[in-house]
Amino acid sequence: MTFLVTGSSGHLGEALVRTLQAQGRKVVAIDIRPGAFTHRVGSTTDRDFVARCMKGVTAVLHAATLHKPHVATHSRQDFVDVNITGTLNLLEAAAREKVAAFVYTSTTSVFGDALVPPPGEPAAWITESVVAVPKNIYGVTKAAAEDLCQLFARNHSLAAVVLRTSRFFPEKDDNPAIREAYEDANVKVNEFLYRRVDIEDVVSAHLLAADHARSAGFAKFIISATTPFSRDDVQALRSVAPQVVRRYAPDSEAEYARRGWTMPAGIDRVYDNDKARAELGWRPRHDFRSAIARLKENRDFRSALAQAIGSKGYHDRAFTDGPYPVERKRP
């Protein structure tokens, strides 16, 4: 099997190429920027470039995208060009070449406003059946690209799998209130309870999805660390989250105290990965409990792959008000 990996100079793209090459797999790695794990430089918006790169490919792992941090620095048209047109170019080329599997890296951000219940309501329990309500151009274009994947699966017999990944970026949180209230590692370990996943597990999900695509035809999966919580916890999680965590991970309290860390008083949503574990046979290795176990041994809570890749950032310049601007006012 020959894999085409898009976005290979980016965070996930590099992780995919590193892993595939380490396994001795054939890879064609493309990105608009040169990089140590990029073989061909070009854009997915260039149909001729995409067509050339697709020759001889049997599986596509499409990770290239404009991300949420680009909303403030790129136009809506940029998002349409990259996230929708770029995906369409890849799907058309893949269908022509009769590619066996197309795996699209989407995001839990497509759920948008469905993620935050009104005040006083229980935490949202997020499964694949929750209706997406995108709240910005990033979410809108990712959702549209998902629909294109479904269209090509239905009308062109292109086996396609959509992976809605939760947070795995290593950069600091864009919310200044969060950055001021918590150490960065504290934030990320907290998120393993309900909205974070390690990049090593994201990679394994992509490779399983490529193997599963032929039998699936079309499918969507949430890719997030396995939460310790159950649906019965959603009411308490919204207001007394530390009490709920104490029941499931009692040893975390002492480790948090040792580090001077805190748990948020409330959690507003929980991502449920049951479908991916059941249908893909996905077995994520990293979650809140495993992070606590490593911290107790004074080890890094991240996987070796996450540590090796490190932070890449999203822009080629620095900003005075945080790791990246959140929103740009438009006329």
The CATH topology is what? Rossmann fold
What's the number of domains?
1
Question: Fraction of residues in helices?
Answer: 40-55%
The largest pleated sheet is described as: 7 strands, parallel
Strand order of the largest sheet: 3-2-1-4-5-7-8
Overall morphology: globular
How would you portray this structure in words?
The structure is a single chain. By secondary structure, this protein is α/β, with parallel strands linked by helices. The protein has one domain (2-305): Rossmann fold. It is built from 12 helices and 9 strands. It has helices at residues 11-22, 47-54, 76-96, 137-156, 176-181, 184-191, 199-216, 234-248, 251-259, 274-279, 288-296, 304-309, and strands at 2-6, 26-31, 40-41, 59-62, 101-107, 124-126, 160-165, 218-223, 269-271. It has a 7-stranded parallel sheet with strand order 3-2-1-4-5-7-8, with helices on both faces. The protein has a two-stranded parallel ribbon with strand order 6-9. Helix 3 (76-96) links the parallel strand 4 and strand 5. The protein is globular, with a radius of gyration of 20 Å. The model has no long low-confidence stretch (mean pLDDT 93).
